[in-house]
Request: fold
Amino acid sequence: MQTRRLGLLDSFSLVVGTIIGTGVFLKAAIMSQTVGSPLYVLLAWVAAGLLALAGALTYAELGMLFPQAGGEYVYLRKAYGDLPAFLYGWQRFWAAAPGSIAAYAVGSATFAAPIIDMSIFGGPKVFAVSLIAIFTLINCAGVVLGGHVQSFLTALKVFLILFVIGGIFFFAQSAGVHNFEAPAESTGWPGLSAFGAAILAATWAYGGWDNLPMVAGEIKDPKRNIPLSLGLGVLAIVFIYVLVHIAYFYALPFSEVMSANSKYNPDALPVATKAAQTFLGSIGYPILAGGFFLSAIGAMNGSVLTNSRVPYALAQDGLFFKPLARLHPTRQTPVVSLLVQGVLAIILALSGTFDQLTDYVVFASWIFFTATTSSVFVFRKRYPELERTYKTFGYPYVPALFILTTICLLVNTLLNSPRESAIGLGIIAAGVPAYWLMKKR
Reply:
């Protein structure tokens, strides 16, 4: 039986720290290229933020009703049965969790390369593997230690973002509202498909708001702290993200934002670095490199801590490998689940397949977001007698809007990225025979 040791600050830091990774520093370029105007980029960030907030406000009720380890797995199982819940845990265990951890680790090594001599560690891949091992062991040592590390890293990365915002508005050279002007040919409505693609790019940077309920079994006073952490955490992120992008466009001509680092121009400087150099000059690059590094390892730590609770919960219910349900006798952490997750992440980091894997599971993840959110309607009807100290804000419209929007995004992704979507569905489908084998055992 796990003990509840995470307070409100730890829970809030998990929400904020797991969401803020690298997307806020990088995504402005590809979004600008997609929609062609600062106004529509900002609107896409607002729309994606409201979507994340709608999901978080719904998950808050679910987490309050069932404050157990496993998060979405628990809600899917109680609403729809073992198979959908197992398929969620299957793709999370083999692909989504280790893929995201590996991506954060390798990203951390990439960001640290300008300020740390990687040859000391045997190269960037060895450095990335070391990070995965270190943060896995930290979280094996206890959820309190992992939570405190998360709070510290979250505070550092929020300070970094506020530092960039303040420096731009007060000290940036050549900054001003004139930089918001877009090319004349790009000022019109970009089209629903392009705007949807920009929103989807922004949702990647908002990813992680769903992780907190995975550790609900270890949160103190969950009926109060889960809704507060999710609601306030996502609201804070929306405010920070929109404000920092206003700062980017205030500091740089739109053409400079468009030519920043993206999948079309990977060798260019990130937009956050370009913006910081407007008031820091040449020292902006190493400062921001250190900031990117801290941001990435903060998101990785949150991902290590939360995702390990999903296979633990499946194993507890007899739906997965039994050793994964073991807790450390004194630390009360799912050590086997953490160690196996760490090994899988290290394999992906060394193989270099995590980028493709995370592309494939984005589509699959949004399917489960939609299914999990719909469970709030099931529980309202099935368990009307349960005490609800918090009810989803704007019910039934907020969760219904979230479901409708995610379905539109899924259709848009299916049409624009059919190969990645098909592979994501294939990963889920591979869990069906595995489920029957587990049940047979």
In short: The two ends are 24 Å apart (CA to CA). The mean pLDDT is 89. The CA atoms of residues 126 and 350 lie 8 Å apart. Residues 82-112 form the longest helix (31 residues).
